[in-house]
Amino acid sequence: MVVKTKALVLRAMPVGDQDRLLTMLSADLGVISVSARGVARNGNRFAAATQPMMYGEYVLFQGSSRYSLNQGEVIASFFDLALEPERYERAVRLLSMSADAGMVPEAAAEVLELTLHALHRLMPGARVPMDPDLAVGIFELKMLQISGLTPHLTGCVQCGTSAIDQIRFSHRHGGFLCEQCEPDDPTAVPVSAGVAKAMLYTLCAPVPSLFRFELASPLAGSFLDLVSRYAEDRWEKRHAKKKSLYGDTDEPSRESEA
Ligand SMILES: [Zn+2]
User: Fold this and answer.
1) Which of 20, 22, 127, 181 could lock onto 158 through a cystine, CB 3.0 to 4.6 A?
2) How far is the CA of 146 from the centre of ligand 1 (A)?
3) In the predicted model, what is the mean pLDDT of residues 93-110?
4) CA 155 to ligand 1 centroid distance, Å
5) CB 71 within 8 A of CB 45
6) Is 24 a residue whose pLDDT tops 50?
7) Distance 164 CA to ligand 1 centre (A)
8) Are 231 and 143 in contact (CB under 8 A)?
9) What is the dihedral of CA 91, 92, 97, 102, to 10 degrees?
């Protein structure tokens, strides 16, 4: 069966001298493996469309276990991110999270939309360049929400009050903590009003309006630190849960996959 889909190339692994094995994120097919034969050959017309960080329109043949590439045409290239190591490194981090979150077929369309917006904002030479820490922080928090791992930010996670003067974030309880409940988690970290506002905006705004605010640079860093630590913790717990559901298999760890 032949299918036509728009997709983002998350990974492109060389196979032999001439072929590539692609991991792609498509809105309608989710995360898929695509075998692309001959694309690494000199002058191949699909060479560009089968590089990582390319978004394109693809015609695929659906085999029994995997797709193979018939045609591919670039719609948008994020390859220029490779020109700035700092931004490139962050983009690679985004794509690895997208590969994880896009495995849930119902989430794939939103994961793809979020990833494309984040990559656009990370691109060097944008009209209004965004702090890369802020872009990644927004991406990570929205991805948690899409994946059903939203932290509790509408009030105190313990007692529910929304009257909090000095906000703290409890990684243990997964949300904001008020002054009265502070003793419940002595490791909770203070959150500045600017960072709290940025977090709330990220959860409330639709994806196309997400990357439209600024945060002074030290705040962008602490926003990212907070979100990343929470994300790491929640993803780890989710993977551990999956592992215990399917038995204690010797799956490759996320680090060795990257
Ligand atoms: Zn409370």
Assistant:
1) 181
2) 26
3) 93
4) 8
5) no
6) yes
7) 8
8) yes
9) 90
